[in-house]
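Subject: for your reference before the review

Hello V.,

The reviewers asked for a structural picture of the protein, and I figured it would be easier to keep everything in one thread rather than splitting it across files. Below is the amino acid sequence we used in the manuscript, unchanged from the supplementary table.
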Amino acid sequence: QVQLQESGPGLVKPSQTLSLTCTVSGGSITTDYAYWSWIRQPPGKGLECVATIGYGGYTYYSPSLKSRTSISRDTSKNQFTLQLNSVTPEDTAIYYCTRAMLPGLAPDYWGQGTQVTVSS
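And here is what came back from the structure prediction:
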């Protein structure tokens, strides 16, 4: 059973950098065809895929966030990390880390989600 656990600050000031880490257990982030994503849900809005990193290191970024976003991984720790620069209150959301087997498929595993609030 794959388990994902998000960690990071719950409160970030505007213009600062948000850094979130997902720790994966029960499976390797280098598992063939596994794609690991950060998905967020702002209050009252739908889900948005922020960034994805694939088993071979392939990366995808939401076009609207690409200039501010970086996703990376640490295979020795079985973790992947999201950095979102120059945050604004519009980045306030619940952030989930997820796994999907092949890009474009719905995630089959989700973390519990972590609330991030951008406020001074």
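For the response letter, the relevant points are probably these. DSSP finds no helices and eleven strands in the chain. The radius of gyration is 13 Å.

Happy to draft the paragraph if you're swamped.

O.
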